[in-house]
Design goal:
elongated, transmembrane helix, transport
Amino acid sequence: LQTRMQSLQPDPKAQYRSVYGALKKMVLTEGLWRPLRGINVTMLGAGPAHALYFACYEKMKKSLSDIFQPGGNSHLANGIAGSVATLLHDAVMNPAEVVKQRLQMFNSPYSSVLGCVRTVHRTEGFAAFYRSYTTQLTMNVPFQAIHFITYELLQEHLNPPRHYNPGSHIVAGAVAGAVAAAATTPLDVCKTLLNTQENTALSSLNIRGHLSGMANAIGTVYHLGGLPGFFKGVQARVIYQMPSTAIAWSVYEFFKSFLSRRALEKKP
């Protein structure tokens, strides 16, 4: 839904006025499973990407907190750790995101993940999978900084002892995800344009070849949609991020608590 609603010049059959309207229209005209298109490539990339992400975050958060605020919790350390962890996460997820969004576009010419990878590599080269990487980082570094700082701040109020508390992890994760998602929507619209290379939009501006670079993407979005164009799909993005970050944090905190407890039990 987010990918479709961020389209700058969609096909008349794929114009949506609301998140619910988009979902209803998609299911009725394209089938029940169409909204789940691209889930397989997302799952393939998410495992290794999040493993690197949280491992880097925990290590850097501890090391930097000891420097900035020994024995305490430093929001600056949390923000820096989240930003650096994003570099590793996005290096893995960016190609998966390109394939996912091309599969999700209306009337996508790609029938499978492998077919999409082969076609993009053959026609646009390997660089196509990282065309939006700088924009992704420009978006995700502030996103993760806001996300982690908000999460850790809420944990200080909801769960001061920092014990395993599923309710606090879910609430803090959802709110942190919503705040970060809303703040970085303009960059997400630019990233979607770079990933999908939306033909109708580029043709209307007489852009030949492939659009590359964040500056070009920002200029294109502004020419086609003005300032409101940068917030296309903001509702879908917030609705997506809230459960996503809530689930991610609650699962992560569960395994962190479970594995720590087991490690302590094994100690003589």
